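Our preliminary data section would be incomplete without showing what the modeling component actually yields. Below, a chain of 171 amino acids is followed by its predicted structure, encoded as tokens that our downstream tools consume directly.
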Amino acid sequence: MKKLLATFLAVCASVAAFAFAGCDNGSGENGGSDKNGEVILEVQSVAFTAKGDYITLSETTSVKDYMDALKDNGELVFGGENGSYGYYITSFYATEEKIISSSATSSEGYSWSFYIDFISLEGDDAIYASDYTTYEYNGKTFYPASFGVSGIPCVEGHSYLFVYEYYNFSW
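Predicted structure:
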């Protein structure tokens, strides 16, 4: 339900090869307000298709490299940190990951899930995503990435998607 809600709430805007989406759902669930009481719109999803307009794409260009070029060009605002699987995104614009509760055996909150439109690439033995679940967005099928953005190649014509999603894990 959260995936459908996030997709429904997204209002796509295209900026050259980059598209991002966001809106306040009006419920206050994901929206916030600044000190003056004005509504701050929070992003629900961010998507782009790689093109060589911002950076020269090569076999060694990562999604992180591409995102850094978009950031340097004023097209994107994001934050993140390095983890054991590479650099992972913790925020886009004003929408940051949120931990609702955490214990030794569980965790609940909202985070940025990273999806890509391929599992592996032709001529490359690496597996970059899993097909245990899929996400449909703008008529394309996306797969959950197995690495952070620094571990995923940025390939001309391929699409990359981030969705702000609720999670609840127990172990």
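Residues 63-72 form the longest helix (10 residues). Residues 1-35 have pLDDT under 50 and may be disordered. Preliminary results of this kind motivate Aim 1 of the renewal.
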